[in-house]
Amino acid sequence: KRVAILISGRGSNMSALIEAAKAPDYPAEIVAVIANKADAAGLDVARANGIPAFAIPHRDFASKPEHENAVSQALHAEKTDIVCLAGYMRIISPEFVSAWEGKMLNIHPSLLPLFKGLHTHEQVLEAGMRVHGCTVHFVTAGMDEGPIITQTAISVNIGDTPDTLAERVLSVEHETYVRALALVASGKAVMKNGRTVFRD
Ligand code: GRF
């Protein structure tokens, strides 16, 4: 399966997917990286790996639909089958989401459905949680609400701060995303009637 990754910044999840896809038996190949910011550090990493990388800055467009059209054109030009959002900090319109329903994944730094939105590590500490983690899910119109594909949990340690949590969560995000993309690209996880259906 041909996979495009959308980023806004450093792209460490993108890098993990690029590395995993180098394995000959990995069921996906990364065919493009698109950033909504020209200075996204991940663009250079993609290029260094010989992957077409496009900066399509949202601020260059008068409206969200126009920006999303430009992104769609790049996705179709690379014959994309699956879109992976990885630190892509834009709200995607319902039209764009439905065009890619069941074929667009996102990673969120919490154990959804808990702690949607931003500042999840602060939310976890505020709630006094003793576990935390990350979730990869199919993207649906609601933010951070799509059917779950993979999750990894970590413990919250005494003295943890938002930064120490973010660092430990990030380190398990990478393997969580690699597993989720493999399941979807191989057809072992599909989105059906708003749910994830697993089959062997
Ligand atoms: C990660 O924490 C991810 O959960 C969230 O934004 C961050 C992206 O990091 N969506 P990176 O750009 O993949 O390093």
From TrEMBL:
The lineage of its organism: Bacteria, Pseudomonadati, Pseudomonadota, Alphaproteobacteria, Hyphomicrobiales. Residues 1-181 form the Formyl transferase N-terminal domain. Belongs to the GART family. It catalyses: N(1)-(5-phospho-beta-D-ribosyl)glycinamide + (6R)-10-formyltetrahydrofolate = N(2)-formyl-N(1)-(5-phospho-beta-D-ribosyl)glycinamide + (6S)-5,6,7,8-tetrahydrofolate + H(+). The keyword Transferase applies. InterPro entries: Formyl_transf_N, Formyl_transf_N_sf, GART, GART_AS. NCBIfam families: PurN (TIGR00639). GO terms for cellular component: cytosol. It comes from the Bacteria. This is Phosphoribosylglycinamide formyltransferase.
